[in-house]
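Recall the central idea of this unit: under ordinary conditions, the amino acid sequence of a chain determines the structure it adopts. In this exercise we apply that idea directly, starting from the sequence alone.
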Amino acid sequence: MSRDEPRPTTRKPLALTQGDPAGIGPEITLKAWLERRECALPAFAVMSDPDLLRATAALLNLPVPVEAVDAAETTAAFERALPVIPLRIPVASTPGRPAAASAKATIASVERAVDLVRGGAAAAVVTNPIAKSVLYSAGFAHPGHTEFLAALAARQGEAPPRPVMLIWCEALAVVPVTIHVPLADVPRLLTRDLIVETGRIVARDFKRRFGVARPRLALAGLNPHAGEDGALGDEDKRVVAPAVAALKAQGIEASGPYPADTLFHARARAGYDVVMAMYHDQGLVPIKTIAFDEAVNVTLGLPFVRTSPDHGTAFDIAGRGVARPDSLIAALRLAARLGEAEAAAHA
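Accordingly, the structure predicted from this sequence is:
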């Protein structure tokens, strides 16, 4: 969506988490609100401590009034002030200096956002960046943000849904089948069933939330030249190609495996809707090269919409006033779009 398109018409506000308060989350949140009219942003409320946002605005000399609200007041307050739904947990934080003492509020912010969406008071969850190491030091039991969201999404007595990471921009969408694992472990972890399950989730959510009637999935090969017919490794013949065949047999428009070195140029991108990369950097290097400041992290497979900026906490620049809100703005706009599609699917 370009910045001169009309504001998304989601009826419900978005629930934005605070992220790690020592990172750039508070700064880009304030800057995104300042660009609400120029970028036609949907209404959103931050799950945080209002005093944290006020202190950050004062530190950076950002003219942002902050108003404590409840969820029902968000849309009305959004034009005049940054709406904050208080966590009732004070946050004492210094930019660039992460501290375990802030972990409780960071976790509570995510829980509150999910509660609002599951309860129907918000259209989607948008998460500011966290530092997993900080949460671990406070006893956080999940491998990361996404697994925590999946656990929160599970109904009592049910197993958590399987989340799938999508990195999206207007020009390209990529899904890494294996994510944050050492490269040496990828061939062992990459299975036909994993690829097929991931492809099913991608196809389903691209239909329902992105409005693509028949999503075209292009699968990258694991090895150079997609294995060169087995000469450069047999995984593409033994694992990836059978997964493509299985997806096709289920009515999903999948193709490949393709050599990854020729899969991301402009002409190739015209032939598919999303790339399924076999490992993290295979997919994320191209999209971050194309859209470093505007790419959005989307979690597929959850029963609610979740987006996030495609960057980290950036502790090294926190508090300096130089952080750009572009990816958060893109995440807010995409969350509104997908939230409306999700609501329509349940209407």
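Confidence is low (pLDDT under 50) at residues 1-9.
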